[in-house]
Amino acid sequence: MNISKKELKALVSLLDDTDKEVKEHVRDRIVSLGNQIIPFLEESWENSFNPEIQKEIEELVHELQFSLLKDRLAEWRDSSDQDLLTGLWIVNTYQYPDLSFDQLNATMHQIYFDVWTSFKNDSPPYEKIRTINSILFKDLKFAANTKNFHSPGNSMLSNVLDSKRGNPISLCAVYLLVGRKLGLPLFGVNLPNLFVLTYKSDNLTFYINAFNKGLIFSRQDIHNYLEHLKIDPKDEFFEPCETIVIIQRTLRNLAYAFDKIGELDKKQEIEQLIDILAS
Question: Which of 82, 53, 89 is nearest to 68 (CA)?
Answer without folding.
Answer: 89
